[in-house]
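Check this:
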Amino acid sequence: MSEARLLSLLIPAVGGQGGGVLSEWIVDAATIEGHLVHGTSIPGVAQRTGSTSYYVELFTGAEPPVFSLYPVPGAVDVLLAPELLEVGRMIELGFPSPSRTTIIASTHRLYSIHEKIATGGGVYDAGRLTEAARAFSRALVAFDALAVAREHGTEVNAVLLGALAGSGALPIGAPAYRAAIAGKGVGVAANLEGFEAGLDLARRGTAAAVTAPERPLRSAPARFAEALAALPQDLRPTVGEALARLVDYQDERYARRYLERLQPFVNGDGALATLVARHLAVWMTYEDAIRVADLKTRGARLERIRREAGGPSPSVIEITDYLKPDLDEIYGILPHRLVAPFARWAERRWPHGRPTLGQHVRTTTILGFLRVWLLGRCRRLRPVSYRAHLEHARMERWLAAVHRCAEWDRGLAREVAGAAQLVKGYGDVRRRMAALFDDLLETTLTAARDESSRAAGFAVSTAFAATYRRLVLKGPDGETEARALAAALRTRLEAHDHAGALGLLVEPVA
């Protein structure tokens, strides 16, 4: 027998990733190899606010040691992470060691609560996480295990088990891992296929090159070929995707309205035209109750759910959609002339949020499916709806502001075009973000129109738009800072204090 060693393995897994099964496979494989082994788990908090840590200790000697229930910082031999951010979490806690630890990780991302809270730009840099993993490991095996699992119709944990076997970090041969998978008797064929894929990647040393394939841009419908050909080459991919999206969302007439709105920007600044093309397409395909219902009853969605649920094809799958539309979303799909008086009353009655109507709809029943499906077929109501009236009026103000700013200053026009990024979400979030967008637009134009010093006005307005947007995208705390910044800036502008205004933008008020 080889020299006696106590080896430790830590699996920080998010709920639903199969971390428990993965640790059981490893324990079973070590037992098959004749090693003394012990495994335990430390429950965490639900989803991405914390992970469940699975810990395995393996002893290659004859005399049984005293096994530990917990990993020791700096003394982990293998860190096996089903998701990249968990590597960063373990590095922060001090578990991996550059002189000792082999890190095996999937590079795909499941976003944390903190990343989701941020309105935009809150996602941790995957490149920095990978660099940290490389710096804090003796050897690194990192690849997109989710992409590999989907390619082979299996699960991430099976692929990572194969990568562990291929890394040689533990004294366990591939046959023992295969036997452990077979011993479970669940999804054996699919899990073995995933194991072999991970094993091959780790042995070839090309794992880092495996990434999820990017979704190709959709082509514009053939009837738009002439209009698309008249656009600059760099703009065609964005507009082609936009036209396909708009036709799917509404109809061909709606897509041509998009082209008409885009036309004033086509022959000017190329970067500005691309910004307008992208943000306008997203805005014009805002998600209302009709869109949500349409997407939830599409065959592709039902097929994806069946595929992800796995199991034999004749199995019965029940789907319950949890819906909670508020009052604005309900009357928003009705004709503007019909509900505008009621909407104004509702705004006065509930200025800080509308009542909601919670519903649990089983879309795999006939009545439940028909209920949602019929709502999805109401797209003909959308052009005259109350929601469309509000959205398109705000779009027109934005486009007019971008066009006016383009006549003044190119950098300012780009910042105003990018401000459309703030108009997102639904319900209370949508109302809040729309109000912030209006505040940004009004203050920016006020600064730019200051005729006492046009150059200084453009500099202040450009810097303000960029700073305001950055603050809002940080999340709720940043929104408060942004509003305070706008109020302070308007005070400076009323006094024609451009130097003071620029000073505010260097260090925004809290």
